[in-house]
Design a protein that fits this description.
Elements lengths: L1 H12 L7 E3 L5 H9 L5 E2 L2 H7 L10 H14 L4 E4 L8 H11 L3 E5 L11 H18 L4 E6 L12 H14 L4 E4 L5 H11 L4 E3 L7 H6 L4 E3 L3 H18 L13
Parallel strand pairs: 1-8, 2-3, 3-4, 4-5, 5-6, 7-8
Helix pairs in contact: 2-4, 4-5, 5-6, 6-7, 7-8
Length: 262
């Protein structure tokens, strides 16, 4: 476990408010290698991208063995720390989830607080118990993995709009107290609200990069410590594939020519 512990410590140290860890999420060994080759110091998986690449829908529709198998192949392909998007844990007890995660070679994970199948938010105390169980199991296993607690209040449009930020802060504080290293108010995009969320938490905050979100430099200025791209890179690669296939079908030249082809 010594190498996994070292990687977990390295991943945790990369979460610096104002100098965020940027994670263009991978879905297979090839994309993970590309992330590292581009100079990024860690690799994160996207559950949605992995699921689709394996032929499944997002929302814990991927058989658990297939999901952890994909994580293991990604971790084996790179020498940097890997953190895995595990949705809400696929119904595994904390000890088994941690055992499988470490066996796959990953040293961090995302856990979300809504039901992937129904979209309903779990009670914050129930979620905190799950996070505390994962933290305790990881420490018992000898690897203090990096636990990223996703807060789905804005994603699920939970409650009145005017109360969502306060509810997200309430949940994030509880998850932090339960042992989360980082909190992830997914789809929170308004700069003022991000700044307020960061100030209220005094902890590493993860923001999802997507159209309409501040740039990485702007997010850094807001105090964000981690920026994820979710399934965005996979979606862009898929869109380019569709475009290229349409060009091939039409008989167009789709490959670069001259110096660009080398």
């Amino acid at each position: 476990m010594t190498e996994l512990s070292r990687r977990a410590d390295a991943l945790r140290a990369l979460h610096r408010p104002g100098d965020p860890l940027i994670l263009p999420n991978a879905w297979d060994p090839g994309s993970a290698r590309a992330v590292v080759a581009a100079g990024f110091p860690a690799v994160a998986t996207s559950s949605g991208a992995v699921a689709e690449a394996l032929g499944h829908a997002d929302g814990e529709a991927t058989p658990v063995d297939e999901m952890f198998g994909a994580v293991a192949r990604i971790a084996a392909a790179v020498t940097v720390p890997v953190t895995a998007d595990l949705e809400r844990g696929y119904g595994l007890r904390p000890a088994e989830l941690v055992e499988r995660l470490l066996a796959a070679g990953a040293v961090g994970c995302n856990i979300e607080d809504s039901d992937p199948r129904t979209g309903e938010l779990y009670d914050a105390e129930e979620q905190a118990d799950l996070l505390a169980g994962i933290r305790a199991a990881a420490r018992a296993a000898g690897v203090d993995l990096v636990l990223n607690a996703r807060v789905d209040v804005h994603l699920r449009a939970y409650g009145p709009a005017e109360g969502r930020l306060a509810e997200a802060v309430r949940r994030a504080r509880r998850y932090r107290a339960a042992g989360a290293d980082c909190v992830y108010p997914i789809v929170l995009a308004d700069p003022a609200q991000i700044r307020g969320f960061v100030a209220e938490l005094d902890a590493p905050v993860n923001v999802l990069a997507r159209p309409g979100t501040p740039t990485p430099a702007e997010l850094a200025a807001l105090g964000v410590a981690r920026i994820s791209y979710g399934s965005g890179v996979y979606a862009a690669a898929r869109a380019r594939t569709v475009e290229m296939l349409a060009g091939i079908r039409a008989g167009d030249e789709v490959f670069p020519t001259g110096e660009e082809a080398r």
